[in-house]
Design a protein that fits this description.
alpha+beta; 5 helices; eight-stranded antiparallel sheet
Length: about 290
């Protein structure tokens, strides 16, 4: 929903269902979450508001100088106008481009005027993996951990997944499409590999994405509360993006993260066979979901 508050301030309000809670993001400007990510933003922009309505306790936060803080007076008023506009649009029950106008009595006898319009649904939104949490950089150890990008035939993948001691299936359909599936491999010595698998399992990952970090791309796994950076790509960014897009298209949106204790030889990937497969995390066609900031 695009909202004009008063005579000058413009925001985009976007609700999400997240398990037992309901989350409303209010972004400055008229770009929604997908448009912000397409523009290269992997984190919510300055002045973003997040309202989480949950039982037994709700929370309200704003982004200021890179930190999530309590709402100030301006943010409270803006959130109230956005919620009033959402109620009006829902009551109108109209199609996309439905426009509503209204006025809300705010604290301090301030009258808040608003005008809002329902934006069209993005046809590609079912593959969106938003990154809306602070990403942690401490999952892997430099010099010991190796992150590899591989495309495995479905039969080979299924055989490896069957050997895994932990499999977290996708929340969305995870079906065989095309000839292969993209797999991200984390290779670590066995004790470290177990630690990585345990921490990822605790994070309850909901997806992976390539997200901008400074002047390059990072591979990030996201969960309801924690996000972890797996690798920063630097000079490999362009090749990784091309591989990612082509592989995801081939597999119908499916991708997997596999934790092993054997690093593949890039020149002999077809002969790679890990000694131990500790964990497999499957991600199907990603639905819109928002990670709660820490």
């Amino acid at each position: 929903m695009a909202l004009k508050a008063g005579s000058w301030y413009q925001v985009c309000a976007q609700p999400f269902d997240n398990a037992a809670s309901h989350i409303l993001f209010v972004y400055p400007g008229w770009r929604d979450m997908r448009e912000l990510q397409t523009a290269g933003l992997g984190q919510p922009p300055e002045l973003t508001i997040m309202a989480e309505f949950a039982d037994p306790e709700s929370s309200f936060q704003r982004v200021y100088e890179g930190e999530w803080l309590r709402l100030d007076r301006f943010s409270i008023r803006l959130l109230a106008l956005a919620m009033a506009a959402i109620v009006d649009i829902h009551a109108a029950g109209g199609p996309t481009d439905t426009e509503v106008t209204g006025q809300l009595q705010l604290p301090g006898r301030v009258r808040g005027r608003y005008r809002a319009v329902l934006k069209p649904k993005d046809p590609d939104s079912d593959r969106l993996v938003p990154v809306m949490s602070k990403v942690r950089m401490d999952l892997l150890e430099e010099g010991e951990s190796t992150v590899s990008f591989m495309s495995l035939g479905w039969d080979q993948y299924r055989a490896l997944a069957k050997r895994s001691q932990l499999v977290m299936p996708s929340r969305e359909p995870f079906e065989d499409h095309g000839q292969s599936i993209p797999v991200i491999l984390i290779s670590d010595p066995i004790e470290r590999a177990w630690s990585v698998a345990d921490r990822l399992h605790a994070a309850e990952p909901i997806g992976m994405t390539l997200a901008p970090i400074e002047d390059t791309l990072a591979l990030i796994v996201t969960g309801p509360q924690d996000g972890y950076c797996l690798t920063v790509l630097n000079e490999r960014a362009a090749l990784a993006r091309a591989w990612w897009q082509a592989s995801i298209e081939e597999s119908g949106g499916a991708i997997a993260l596999m934790i092993v204790d054997t690093t593949p030889d890039p020149d002999r990937a077809d002969q790679w066979f890990p000694a131990n497969v500790l964990a497999v995390f499957e991600f199907g066609s990603q639905k819109q979901a928002a990670s709660k900031p820490r």
